[in-house]
Structure formats: structure tokens, C-alpha cells
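Page 42, continued from yesterday. The earlier attempt failed because a stray header line got pasted into the input along with the sequence. Redoing it now with the clean sequence only.
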Amino acid sequence: KELIREFREEYSGKRVVLSVDRLDYSKGLIQRLEAFRLLLKNHPEWINKVSLVMILVPSRDSVDRYQDLKTKIDEMIGKINGEYSNPGWIPIHYFYKSFSFKELTAFYNASDIALVTPLRDGMNLVAKEFIAAKGNNPGVLVLSEMAGAAIELTDAIHVNPNNASEISDSINRALIMPVEEQRERLKKMQKVIKKQDIAKWA
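This time it went through. C-alpha cells are written below.
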């Protein structure tokens, strides 16, 4: 609860889109950043009002191919922040580090939108963790149709992870979604993940 309070103070008055992933080509990170850039370009009303909090957990960064991916991500974030930042507001808050599960749970709880758009994923527990951590708070899950969890989480906004324009439109849709609709969708998905627990899968 203390971490949630700190997070909300840090982003007071701003809407927060959360992205949590390992550094990996399969996660669609470049497309995700392009989608957020398009959101700011096509919907300038969100400038100064929405920030993307991007958490990248280091993974195989000693491998040249992964180092190249990280360089591309760093450059893209720098370009977007350089173009759109204002005094007192940065579009993308970027963390290349691991966080504890308590910290991540606080991020999930206090964020408005979870952006989970892998190009291919067997399950994707980030999507389920976000839903579980929201409790009764409103929030929207934007989920890749290529993630295994999409089969169960039918009340998420499903997107084609290769289509940055579609992801951008879906973020905008999530931002303007009525609070009651957000809660209704979350409740339905919480029922699913409560039933489909690890024992049931085993």
C-alpha cells in the first residue's frame, strides 16, 4: 500500500500506461514504442496527460543481437522524449532493471492501462498479474491476440501486435473507456483467472 501511494504521488494528475517485459525480440517492444508515438502524434490531447512507464528486465544483454535491440529501444525512447517532452512531463519513463514482485504489484495496481503486446507468447503472466493486482480499481488490459492468455482473457482489448496503428487506437480507446465498463471487464477476467489457477492447469 505504501508503494502504491508513492507511485500515485509520482504520477499524480497523469494517466499511466504500463509495459513490463524481458528484453526479447518476441515481445514486440519496437512496435509498442511506435504505437505510443502515434498516440501522441494522432491524439495531441493526451500530451502532458499520459505517460508510458516501460520496465525492461535485463535478459541476455551480453549477446550482440540483444544489445542491438536494446540500442534501438534506447534510441527510440530518446527520440520520442526529445520530440514531445515538456517541463514537468516526460512521455516515456524507462527503467532497464529488475523490480521486486511487491514493487511490480504496486505498479500494476496504480496504473490505468497495461500494454501487453508480444509478437508471440506461450501464456504471458504479466497480463494475469495486472488483472489480479487491480482488485476493485478500474483499469484496462490491451493484449496481443498472439499471447496464449488472449484465449481466456476475452474482455481485454485484443490487438494485432505487428500493427502499431491498431495498438495506438486501442490505447486511445482504453483511455476514454468509461470507468464502469473498465470495472465490468476486469471483474469478468478476474473470475476467469481465479478459476483457471495453477492447480487447474496442472
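Notes: The helical segments are 2-10, 29-42, 64-84, 101-110, 125-134, 164-176, 179-195, 198-201.
Reminder to self: strip header lines before submitting.
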